[in-house]
Structures are given as structure tokens and as C-alpha cells.
Amino acid sequence: MSDVVPLDVIGRRVEVNGEFATVRFCGAVPPVAGLWLGVEWDNPERGKHDGSHEGTMYFKCRHPTGGSFVRPNKVNFGVDFLTALKKRYVLEDGSDDDGKSSSLKVGSKQVQTVGFDSITKKQSQLRALKDISLWKCAVSCAGEQGRIAEACPNIRVVNLSKNLLSSWDEVVLIAEQLTNLEDLDLSENKLQFPSDSPTPVGTFSNLKILVLNKMGVTWAEVLRCAPSWPVLEELYLKSNSISISERPANVLQKMRLLDLSSNPAIDENQLCLIAYLPRLEHLLISDTGLSSIHFPDAGIGCKTSMFPSLQYLVVNDNKISDWSFINELDKLQSLQALSCTRNPLTEGNKAKEIIIAKIGQLKTLNRSEILPDERRGAELDYQKAFGNEWKRAGGHTDPDKNRPNAEFLLAHPRYQLLCSKYGAPEDEELKTQQPFMLKNQLLTLKIKCSSKPEQKVLEKQLPDSMTIQKVKGLLSRLLKIPVSEILLSYESPKMPGREIELGDDLQSLQFYSVENGDCLLVRW
């Protein structure tokens, strides 16, 4: 730090006692003598005023207490890329007189190296670097042209988050010297983006991952720079107050992942503008305030042409409170994984089961795999839960008379498909249960020994809460066979020819949706 001020000081990013700011003014502030810098703090609580002093406005701030005047010698204008790199990944000579022993310093760790001259060692170590982090290292510029390419040409991954870079042009000067660059993190740098001048062709020709979180970047600025990212696969734009204002035309066509989380202006209409990115597989839109989504090109039971490749959707921490949101997700042709936690809709005890029943192709929910038995149980429970409503709406066990009204189908678009899959629910199943009376929880089941077909079929009444482990214990006593040898499954008259394994000893008969009249199959 010194009293020397760069010629391009206005707009420069600076650090003062650990706080970050942007220079908005340079000059005298009478009546106090000397040179002053007017800065606008990233943290407005750090400032004292709005850029004015004794009635004179020297610069403007977005916040009434966002500004301060500071002396140039109190300000850190940062260092060039290579200076920061050498300071962070520096080789220090050892104590051996022959120069054969030295140590590599990475952060605070010392790693001993043997067998090279000190200077050669420093150069070779820099050239060997492939993955570097210069987080919060006060990098402000590229430095002398060509020196980065000469010193460290093999770098592929660069973390430049929370530095003092002031413009996209400076990022370009760094990147064009890193021809192998694949992964770049620029988060928390307040950059000025060019209004029209395109980035030189080839600068980001290998860039696959770009992180621009907490930068204040706009969607228009992203699209303006996007032509220079021809092979970009992952783009992170978290916490930028972004509004999607236009469709990506001939850009971002290879992008597989887009993170728009914590951008509160995002809504369903804006999502339509990115719905035809052909390779988009992962979409993260948590904490945006999203409450609804609609795919107007697809009717009930049909698939949408929007988001054709989307497999993984994250909508945590939103305002989703209506099941129509989940119904719409079933229209996505490729969706396999959904994360939907901390939404009003998911606060109920049965929310998970209902989501599974409503989205037929879902394989993972909230990072948990949906097993076949879990899906079957959820779908059968859903059928029973809304069976009476289905009948009142015109549903019928006779296929020729089964015509539920449009209102029911809109609320339960998969219900008819579930009836085709499992059979229509019978009146007996839809009677109101009396949960505290044991007789209403007893199942009358047949027991067939598949290992001994000649043995007589037994019939037993068992509580639906009985675990598979206890059922096996009962059968062990009845059939005089060791529990450890028993393999248990069942078949239902509703699904002729299909056998369901009862593989988890800790689950109950009810978990597997075993019903009155079903037949337990015993093998050993």
C-alpha cells in the first residue's frame, strides 16, 4: 500500500482492512488537504454516507450509508495473477549447502523435495500445477502479457473467487494464457462486463465449468459472453438477483447443468425461456420463491416437449403448496430425480408417498433411492386414499362404466393408469378403517408351501402390523423348519401371475400392501 494511485483507479476493486469496495471517486475533498478515494462498500453497513460531504455530492451509492472517503495508503489495490500464484504455491530453499534439499510450501504446509536445483524446482513446480485456488488472494489483474502462459501453461482448474478483479476483460487476459482451462470460479468478484466487444475466439475453447455466484451479473451479460463458451457444460449463477429476460439463441447448447438458486425474481414464465436447451439434465432452482409451474403443450397423461433432457430437478426452500406442481412434473419425459424439501407441500406425513405415486418415472426423491416395493406401496396407498373420491367422480370397477370427470383427472392424472396397473379398488378396500379395533386389522391369508406342493394349503388370520420376521417365526413353528432357511413372498388375486418378495424382515405386512385373500408363498 502506498500513496501512488493507478491511472484507471475509478471502478477499481479494492480491499481496506479486510472489507471489499469499489472506487467511485479520486480527488480532493475540501477543506481537508490531500488526495482522497471515495469508495462504495460491498457491505453498506461499513460506510458512513451516500458519497456526499458537507453538502457536496462527490459520488453516488446505492445505499445511504454505503460510502466512505479513505486515503490511498490505506487501500490494497491487489496484485497480478502470477504474483498471487507464487505467493500461494511457493518453493522455499532448504538449509542444505549443496542445494539438493528444499521444501514446497502449499498454503501453510511444507512438503520436502529432493534432487533439483532451487530455481529449476520453482519453475517445474509451477509448470506442473493443474488445479489451483487463489481464493481471497487479492488478484486484480493478469499482469505482464505472456508471463502466465510461460510460467504455468498446464493449469486446468482455477478458483479466483472473492478477489479484486474489476472487469471481464481482465479475466479474458488471464484465460487466454491458460489454453487448457476447463473449470473457472469467479464468484464474489464485482465485474464490469463489456457492452458489445466480443471475447476473442478461442479464449475459453475448453471451458466446461463456470461459476459466477454472488457477482451481480445479469442474464443479458451472461448471454453476451456465452458465445465464447462453446463447450460449456455447467453454469452456476446462484445469488445474482437474475431475471431471465430472453431465450439463449445459439448459445449454451451443450450445457448440462444450470444453477439459478437464490435468485428471487425467477418464476415459471422465465423458466419457459430456458425450456428448450437440448442437453440440460440438471436444473437447480432452490430458494427462488417458486410456487407454480406449467407445461401448456401437454395435456393430462401426456409428456411435454419442454426440458427434453432434464433428469434432475432441485426445488428446495420454495413456496410450493399445491399438488398441481407435482402433477406437472410427471409430464417431463426424462425426469428421474427430484429434491423438494422445505416446501409447504412437503410438510405433511404422507407427502413423500404421494409424490412417488404422482411421478411415475421418478427413481430418486430427496436423494433417497425409490425401491420397487416402496413405489408399489405408495401407489396402492394413493389408490385407496382417493378411491372414494374417484367413485364419486364417476370412477367404476367396470371398465365400460369407468368415466371419472375432468376435475378428478386434473387433480389425479395418474389414477386411471394405477387402476390399469393394480386393478380398480374394490368397495371393501375403500371402507373407513377403525384403526384401534384389532379385528379390523386382521388379514385372512392363505399359506402355500411352494417347496412341498403336496402339503395342504393353510389359512391364518394375521395382524397387518405383523413384521415379516415374526411371520417367519410363526411359520417355523407351524412347518417345523429353521427360520433362517425360510424365503417368503406373496401373490394377490388382483395381480395374477406376479409374485412379490417379502425381503425385509423388519417391515410389516401392511408395508408390502398384503391384503385379505392374498396367499403367502413359503420356500426353504
From TrEMBL:
Q: Where in the cell is it found?
A: Cytoplasm, Cytoskeleton
Instruction: Supply the CDD domains for this chain.
Output: Ubl_TBCE (cd17044)
Q: Where is it mainly found?
A: cytoplasm
Q: Where is the CAP-Gly domain?
A: 27-71
* Pfam family, any one: LRR_9
What domain of life does the native source organism fall in? Eukaryota
Q: Which SMART domains match?
A: CAP_GLY
**Alphabetical list of InterPro entries matching this protein:** CAP-Gly_dom_sf, CAP-Gly_domain, LRR_dom_sf, Ubiquitin-like_dom, Ubiquitin-like_domsf, Ubl_TBCE
Q: Which UniProt keywords apply?
A: Chaperone, Cytoplasm, Cytoskeleton, Leucine-rich repeat, Repeat
Key word Aminoacyl-tRNA synthetase present in the record?
A: no
Q: Which SUPFAM superfamilies match?
A: Cap-Gly domain (SSF74924), L domain-like (SSF52058), Ubiquitin-like (SSF54236)
Q: What does this protein do?
A: Tubulin-folding protein; involved in the second step of the tubulin folding pathway and in the regulation of tubulin heterodimer dissociation. Required for correct organization of microtubule cytoskeleton and mitotic splindle, and maintenance of the neuronal microtubule network.
Oligomer and partners? Supercomplex made of cofactors A to E. Cofactors A and D function by capturing and stabilizing tubulin in a quasi-native conformation. Cofactor E binds to the cofactor D-tubulin complex; interaction with cofactor C then causes the release of tubulin polypeptides that are committed to the native state. Cofactors B and E can form a heterodimer which binds to alpha-tubulin and enhances their ability to dissociate tubulin heterodimers. Interacts with TBCD.
Entry's family note: Belongs to the TBCE family.
Protein name from the UniProt record: Tubulin-specific chaperone E
